[in-house]
Amino acid sequence: MNFEQANMDYLQDLSGGNTELIREILELFIRQTPPDMERLAAYIQQGDWEKVYKQAHHIKPTLAYVGANEMREELQKIETLAKNELELDTVYGKFCELLPRLETLYDELKAYLKTL
Predict the structure, then answer these.
(1) What is the DSSP letter of 61?
(2) Domain of residue 106, residue span
(3) Contact 33, 62 (CB under 8 A)
(4) CA distance 71 to 52
(5) Residues 6+ away with beta carbon under 8 Å from 19
(6) Which residues are annotated with the PTM Phosphohistidine (predicted)?
(7) How far is CA 114 from CA 16, 69, 99, 109, in A?
(8) Which residues in 47-70 are b (16+ Cβ under 10 Å) and which e?
(9) CATH of the domain at 43
(10) pLDDT tens for residues 10-55?
């Protein structure tokens, strides 16, 4: 199964192919990431650099589990900009670019879950 945003290889390796563990991780990701992103959006809107940095740092590793490495790199850029209190417009723009890609990722993961 080919995906635009996700790559299940890492999760397959991490879980040893345990489909129940994969299911749990994906369901947790789908359930927890949207509220995490909502918090990140609020912190960006507030211009709270420290919270933006910490929230981006918190979300970033979860994207690695589902092989969304390009999005992980974008969150790293947001994290770095926030840590250095640079370019609020750039941070906001990068965040806005991530949202539709995350929706695609959620759809891909839900489709993958149906195959387990």
Answers:
(1) H
(2) 9-115
(3) yes
(4) 16
(5) 116
(6) 57
(7) 19, 23, 23, 9
(8) eebebbbbbbeebbebbebbbbee
(9) 1.20.120
(10) 888 888 989 999 999 999 999 999 999 999 999 999 999 999 999 9
What is the pTM for the complete model shown?
0.86
pLDDT per residue as tens digits for the range 53-99 = 999 999 999 998 898 999 999 999 999 999 887 777 889 999 999 99
Tell me the C-alpha distance between 16 and 1, whole Å.
18
CB crowding 85-112: b at 16 or more within 10 Å, else e: eeeeeebbebbeebeeebeebbebbeeb
Q: What residue type is 3 in one-letter code?
A: F
Number of independent structural domains in the chain: 1
φ and ψ at residue 6, rounded to 5 degrees: -110, 155
Answer for the pair 19, 116: CB distance below 8 angstroms, yes or no: yes
Instruction: Identify the helix (H) or strand (E) that includes residue 67.
Output: none
The answer to whether position 4 is within a domain reads no
Q: Are 40 and 52 in contact (CB under 8 A)?
A: yes
